[in-house]
Amino acid sequence: MSYLLRERFGFPEECILVLTQEDKDPARVPARANLMRALRWLVDGTSAGDSLVFHFSGHGVQRLDRDGDEADGYDEALCPVDFDDPHGGGVILDDEINATIVRPLGKGVKLHAFVDTCHSGTMLDLPYLCRLSRTGYWQWENQQSGLSGDTKCTSGGLAISISGCADSQMSQDSTSVSAPTSTGAMTYSFIKAVESEPGTTYGRLLAAMRATIRQNGGELGIPGPIGTFFRRVITFSCAQEPQLCASETFDVYTKPFLL
């Protein structure tokens, strides 16, 4: 992803912060404290015209909602590498992510978040979710209508999230982009869509990502007839479906995808 940001979208290398488990520097490992520090760094000192990108590829979970702001009764959460460590501080709830990188966004500032985890659909707690209607058209739904708690908007900026699957779904890995190392299927499908069609719209991007995941939905490492059966089940009944959420609605058929 960092290569794509540099080479395709022109982000300067000094403006990209990468945290990985393999890093020898303890401050660059995706532990909870480091992730929260990185999120604050992302939005600190921003001004109109700035474009921000957050990408997380790892594990995601659900936790019981405690404040009544979730339609399904569950908060979504990211799992830092130390989330189950008694001294690590636990998971990072969607409420925290929203408060840290969504609400501070001022007018003219744009954030794109790419969340490649299980249960990632509304990981930023953005109010609008783009769904495919029964007639085959993308349409926006307000996910926070009628719920208790504050509406989780920006401070005038635009926040957009593209996630690996719906809140109730699991995400798969793919070796297609980084064999023999697995990468998230959403990350792979996003890179493929962007490289295949520069200047695409958000609607075409989302459709292309979903099509790629359906085509590659069987990479489960299960050989033989059983593997074939599971590939069919996953492809046609419960395959992960990348999700698009935003802080405000827009025409996904005409708005170009721009970072």
Automatic annotation (TrEMBL):
Pfam families, sorted: Peptidase_C14
InterPro entries tied to this protein: Metacaspase, Pept_C14_caspase
A Gene Ontology BP annotation from the UniProt entry: proteolysis
Entry GO MF terms: cysteine-type endopeptidase activity
Domain Peptidase C14 caspase, chain residue ranges per copy: 2-249
Recorded family membership: Belongs to the peptidase C14B family.
Designated name of the protein: Metacaspase-1
Gene: AMC1_4
